[in-house]
Design brief:
The structure holds 2 protein chains of 2 kinds. Chain A has 15 helices and no strands. The N and C termini of chain A lie far apart (67 Å). Chain B is built from 13 helices and 17 strands. Chains A and B meet through helix 1 and helix 2 of A and helix 6, helix 8, strand 15, strand 16 and helix 12 of B.
């Protein structure tokens, strides 16, 4: 009985204490577990297998490129947020991710300052000038990559050709070889590239070393529901089908170049892709169409990067025309 | 086949805290606060004065106008004050305060054998029955649709899609027969040729209990639905069961449907067949911060603090107490607020389940709120417009179609208080249209 009394007293005491400590807010009072930060961390997790493989293949060069790209991105983010006197958000993981993705758009043997400048530009011109996370129009990593390409094309592409010319007879990228082949200028068996790209492709950007690892990343992102299938499938599917229609080898065109890496990690960027599923399908289709056209009809090596940037610019328009049909939008009877 | 609607979220339900606890009667407290606006519509008009003696079941306040409801005393006692008191929303509303003397003898309403539809509606109105699912809309109004909109389908809502709460579930398990009798009365009152009891597939025991009794009744079917929040939303339930979409700004009777909650059906049975007015209801007292979570029958007007005491009290780590479920309920600032007819539960959450107000509020355009929105509108844009006070832009983006389910804010990884901004915009737009 005395125990019961005590317990009652205690609970009464706790009311007195709690009375002024109750937290009041608007509903809902429970939240999903996913936060911006752990979404970013999951994407980082999805690209880490590729990064590890890069370091395994290229050793010090790859580690150096990653280090300086991430440093450039983080320092720029911190510096600009400091100048703007806005809260410091480098712990949300988005700048680290941008740095990693940028490094993966570069060949492994770039000078350290190239990757550093790339990181600075990606965050500075690609993201913070628009107002920071969530406000940028273009994919920051691709902005960084494009800036580097236009400024120091030699550094970005030199590695590419040199390394490749050691392995095979010609001195060009696989996509260029394919172009010559279909123009009837050379004779070559395109299927020899399949295995190389699946497992160990050492003559492209660091993100393209292995199709298997990109697909592993895709599985992680899909499984954790960070992205849905719409953009990767509509993007790659469009390229695949158009290539068949053009009478070319669709598998070759799918696995070479930056297409898969771009479709899985770049085109799916939340901020720069449309909001609705319908919009995402259109976005993926547009990326695929432009990639196909640029690959077949232009001399640019940048089909994937430019297609995604182009569609980034069209995202607000797509969003405007793909508003969901609201519930109850039926004729009143 | 398990059917469902577009959108929605899958929160963790925490139903296990009270789903197996029998409904027990709460001990009568020493004081009750009977708020005069328990329901949607005009507040009721007090029929008693200070120092008046009241009996259990006595009508103490009368409906004012059609959309309003009567109020009955759940106890024998004395009126000690008629004054504004705090309610769960934080506002102060006029209320009758009763000093309790005991249960005493019960005053019952007149019971009619084989009542006509009109007599059923009258009894429901007299008993002060309102929607017990949470909205507290006067039931007699719902039972009287305009003649040009006849009802052909009645849906009894036993979804209980709110996490934590197990009120409708327990009622279906423990009183299936009385619920079905209430459903039968609703059928008799409004007609219609199809009657469906909708239950989510995470409540197999309830489905079983109802199905055991259903053979005694004619033309009532059970429909088992996919478990998803907000499955119990009236308009979405109608869409799932009948395939009809209530037009934007319209009401269920516009598509010939009437939706009633399970507990409302039970209250209708008790009013019409037993003559007991609505003065008590079943609530779940649950949450990780409650010492012993339980399901109680509580008198309307009982203070949260009295109820919590009977559930063992709050744990030391309690940080938030919610009237209703955690998705749509109201967090209370003081425990001295009364349970009302529309209060379906009291949920107490511990500190680690309550997130502080976010420091940053940046949309990363993931689109999850749009995927989750059952109203198929764009909470991300509405949230921004609401925050900036851009009411007209928000109206362009279908602000008023928001059903305030909270799925958007629940799912938002950036922790934007989307629903709060939307409510702000709605309130502001109502203010503007008044001017």
């Amino acid at each position: 009985m005395a125990e019961k009394e005590n317990e009652k007293k205690e609970s009464e005491k706790s009311y007195q204490e709690q009375r002024f400590k109750l937290f009041v807010s608007s509903s809902p009072h429970i939240r999903d577990k996913d936060t911006t930060q752990n979404i970013m961390l999951t994407v980082i997790l999805a690209v880490i297998p590729i990064a590890i493989y890069d370091i395994y293949l290229f050793g010090w060069f790859a580690a150096r490129a990653f280090f300086w790209a991430i440093s450039g991105a983080l320092l720029t983010e911190a510096l600009i947020q400091r100048l703007k006197k806005s809260p410091l958000t480098i712990t949300d993981g988005s700048a680290i991710l941008t740095g990693m993705l940028l490094a993966m758009c570069l060949p492994p043997r770039v000078p350290f300052w190239i990757s550093f400048v790339g990181g600075v530009v990606a965050i500075g011109l690609g993201k913070q000038v628009y107002g920071g996370l969530g406000h940028n129009i273009f994919n920051p990593a691709l902005v960084g990559r494009t800036f580097l390409l236009l400024s120091w094309a030699g550094h970005i592409t030199k590695d590419y050709y040199e390394k490749f010319s050691v392995d095979t007879v010609t001195g060009a990228s696989p996509l260029f070889i394919a172009k010559q082949y279909y123009l009837g200028e050379i004779k070559v068996d395109l299927t020899q590239f399949y295995q190389v790209h699946l497992f160990k492709n050492t003559y492209g950007s660091m993100g393209e070393v292995s199709v298997i690892l990109i697909l592993l990343g895709l599985v992680i992102l899909l499984f954790r529901r960070i992205i849905d299938w719409t953009i990767p499938v509509s993007y790659v599917g469009t390229v695949f089908l158009l290539t068949i229609a053009a009478g070319r080898d669709p598998v070759f065109y799918t696995i070479t170049g930056g297409l898969l890496f771009g479709a899985v990690f770049m085109a799916t960027d939340y901020v720069t892709s449309p909001l609705t599923r319908r919009g995402k399908l259109i976005f993926g289709f547009g990326c695929g169409l432009f990639t196909f056209l640029m690959r077949i009809y232009s001399n640019s090596q940048e089909a994937v990067a430019y297609s995604i940037l182009l569609m980034n610019a069209l995202t607000p328009v797509i969003d405007n025309y793909t508003l969901p049909r609201k519930f109850g939008a039926v004729k009143q009877t | 086949m398990v059917r469902t609607f577009e959108g929605g979220v899958h929160p963790y339900y925490y139903k296990e805290l009270v789903r197996d606890k029998n409904i027990i009667k709460a001990e009568i407290p020493s004081r009750l606060v009977m708020v005069l606006s328990q329901h949607v519509g005009a507040p009721s008009n007090p029929l008693v004065k200070v120092k008046d003696k009241v009996k259990r079941g006595q009508k103490i306040a009368e409906a004012q106008g059609f959309v309003s409801a009567n109020l009955h005393s759940p106890v024998e006692g004395t009126v000690v004050a008629i004054k504004p008191s705090f309610v769960c929303s934080g506002a102060k509303n006029p209320s009758i305060v009763i000093e309790v003397e005991g249960l005493g003898e019960e005053e019952r309403m007149e019971v009619k054998e084989n009542p006509t539809p009109q007599e059923i509606k009258d009894a429901v109105k007299e008993a002060g029955i309102v929607g017990l699912g949470g909205a507290a809309f006067p039931t007699h109004v719902k039972l009287s649709p305009p003649p040009e909109c006849p009802i052909d389908t009645i849906i009894i809502n036993g979804c209980e899609c709110e996490p934590y709460l197990s009120v409708d579930f327990r009622i279906m398990v423990e009183y299936p027969r009385e619920v079905l009798e209430g459903v039968q009365l609703i059928k008799e009152a409004v007609g219609g040729n199809r009657t469906v009891i909708a239950i989510e597939d995470n409540k197999p025991e309830a489905v079983e209990a109802i199905k055991r009794e259903i053979s005694n009744f004619d033309g009532i079917e059970v429909s088992v639905l996919h478990t998803k929040y907000p499955q119990g939303s009236e308009k979405h339930l109608i869409k799932v069961i009948t395939g009809r979409e209530v037009p934007s700004g319209g009401l269920p009777f516009h598509v010939g449907v009437l939706v009633q909650n399970v507990q409302t059906a039970l209250a209708i049975k008790r009013a019409v067949k037993d003559g007991i007015p609505l003065y008590e209801r079943v609530i779940s007292v649950t949450g990780q911060a409650i010492r012993s979570p339980r399901n109680f029958i509580v008198p309307v007007g009982m203070l949260a603090s009295d109820i919590l005491e009977q559930a063992g009290g709050l744990k030391q780590n309690a940080a938030k107490v919610i009237f209703g479920g955690p998705m749509t309920g109201m967090a209370i600032g003081s425990l001295d607020v009364p349970v009302m007819k529309g209060t379906s539960g009291i949920v107490a959450l511990p500190k680690d389940a309550v997130e502080p107000y976010p420091e940053t509020d940046v949309c990363i355009r993931c689109g999850r709120c749009i995927e989750a929105c059952p109203a198929r509108i764009m909470p991300n844009h509405l949230g921004t417009f609401g925050r900036l006070g851009m009411v007209e832009r928000a109206l362009d983006y279908n602000l008023m179609d928001c059903i305030e389910c909270g799925a958007c804010a629940y799912i938002c990884p950036a922790r934007r208080n989307l629903l709060q901004y939307i409510r702000y915009a709605k309130a502001k737009s109502r203010e503007l249209s008044k001017k």
